Automatic annotation (TrEMBL):
Cited Pfam families: LTD
Protein name: Lamin tail domain-containing protein
Gene source species: Nonomuraea mangrovi
Keyword annotations: Signal
Biological classification of the source: Bacteria, Bacillati, Actinomycetota, Actinomycetes, Streptosporangiales
LTD domain mapped to chain residues: 13-137
Signal sequence bounds: 1-18
SUPFAM superfamilies linked to this entry: Lamin A/C globular tail domain
Entry annotated with the keyword Membrane: no
Length: 146
């Protein structure tokens, strides 16, 4: 039996204007893709390139096995000690260093983020896309993603 037109219209209207999903609990807030100075692959220059993420909740988020990846496929996987406190930010720097609660180091000796355009992807341990931030400009050195 076909549905009455009024019922079809009501169902369509209720889904067409449904509110968008809530903001993710962990968000990419900034991608600093063109580190200051000349790109000579020094550790200081590599660490000038980074991605910052923010926990928007009131609970800690265990980032173990979460990933940050660029469009090319360079992937960083957070280890077992990566816990993002409530309302806290964590910066992932491209170069080498000692991890702290607010800074992780990719450990690379080459740049990740293209200086003109790229996309940063944040995925949970199941591979679900949690957030992304894209940029397409060589006129600035970073992108604020919020």
């Amino acid at each position: 039996m076909p549905l009455p037109l009024a019922l079809i219209a009501a169902l369509t209207a209720s889904t067409a204007f449904a509110p968008s999903s809530a903001a993710p609990a962990v968000q990419i807030t900034k991608v600093y893709y063109d580190s200051p100075g000349v790109d000579r692959r020094s550790n200081t220059s590599l660490n000038g390139e980074y991605v910052t993420i923010l926990n928007t909740t009131r609970r800690p988020v265990d980032l173990e096995q979460w990933t940050i990846k660029d469009k090319t496929g360079y992937t960083y996987t957070f280890g077992p000690d990566a816990v993002l406190g409530p309302g806290k930010k964590l910066t992932l720097r491209t170069g080498q260093g000692s991890d702290t609660p607010s800074t992780s180091y990719w450990g690379r000796r080459a740049y990740v983020w293209n200086n003109d355009k790229d996309i940063a992807y944040l995925r949970d341990p199941d591979g679900k896309l949690i957030d992304s931030c894209s940029y397409n400009s060589s006129r600035t050195d970073y992108r604020n993603c919020l």
